[in-house]
Amino acid sequence: MKFTPRSETTRQLIIESVANLMNRQGYAGTSITDLEKATGLTKGSIYGNFENKEQIAYAVFDYNLLRLRQAISNAMDKCGTYKDKLLANIAVYYGSMDSSGGGCPMMNTAVEADDTHEGLRKRAAEGLLRWKQDLTAVIEKGMAANEFKKDTDVQKTALTIIALIEGAILIGKATQNPVFLDVILTTAKETVQGISQH
After folding, report:
1. Distances (CA, A) of 39 to 14, 85, 176
2. Which among 163, 84, 168 has a CA at the least distance from the CA of 131?
3. Which of 57-66, 114-123, 152-161 has the lowest mean pLDDT?
4. Does the keyword Transcription apply (predicted)?
5. Cα dist. 107→96, 113, 178 in Å?
6. Is 5 a member of any domain?
7. What is the pLDDT of residue 183?
8. What is the DSSP string of 8-71?
9. pTM passes above 0.85
């Protein structure tokens, strides 16, 4: 029998209430008691709207990824050049160590789930690949507009920017040193400068 949630409104309340918590603590580190405290709901109410904790984790990851993609999209919408659009991707992550949201959902999920939860690992991978596609599109448009060098290796540049951003978050959080985060994000900005015509 197909599971049907009792209430779409309650389901959304659960997702929004536990989004930051699950992003910080992860799937394994978040208990049903944590979910009850965060939502103010009983176990019965939570599981009346989600089949199991795994389904909550999927919905929360999707929600957190959407929030991140919207933040990046909003930052890029304010930019007049493709170079500034690439730099906006990087700027979104400045200060991400202090974020009460717990940092990048793709990074957190990939690190936790790579060997333990195939479904969440796949979701993180899809998020990263979509991000790569977005960056690739910006770089290609920038090349067509003569903002970026014609010999730019588009795939390599997109992956380098992602690797530097995610690496900056990992090293910054692990060492609790925001200076490392800034140093590596500056290197990501230099990557963008390196493909620019001016």
Report:
1. 6, 37, 29
2. 163
3. 114-123
4. yes
5. 12, 10, 17
6. no
7. 92
8. HHHHHHHHHHHHHHHHHHTTTT--HHHHHHHHT--HHHHHTTSSSHHHHHHHHHHHHHHHHHHH
9. yes
111: tokens are 């690190």
Query: Tokens 């659009």 correspond to what residue?
Result: 85
The rounded distance, in Å, linking the Cα atoms of 36 and 45 is 9
What is the C-alpha to C-alpha distance for residues 126 and 132, in angstroms, rounded to an integer? 10
As a whole number of angstroms, the distance between CA 130 and CA 62 comes to: 13
Is 118 part of any domain? Answer: yes
Examine residue 140 and state whether it is found in any structural domain, yes or no.
Answer: yes
**Domain hosting residue 146, numbered range:** 61-195
Do the domain assignments include residue 34?
no
The kind and range of the H/E element at 141 are helix 118-144
Number of domains in the chain: 1
Q: At a CB cut-off of 8 Å and minimum separation 6, what does 151 contact?
A: none
Closest to 19 (Cα-Cα) out of 33, 34, 3? 34
Structure tokens that stand for 150 in this block = 């014609």
Cα distances (Å, whole numbers) of residue 81 to 3, 148, 163, 170, 196: 47, 11, 23, 29, 11
pLDDT at 98 over 60: no
**CATH number, residue 172:** 1.10.357.10
Q: Which residue has the higher pLDDT, 98 or 51?
A: 51
- The Cα 161–Cα 159 span in angstroms is 5
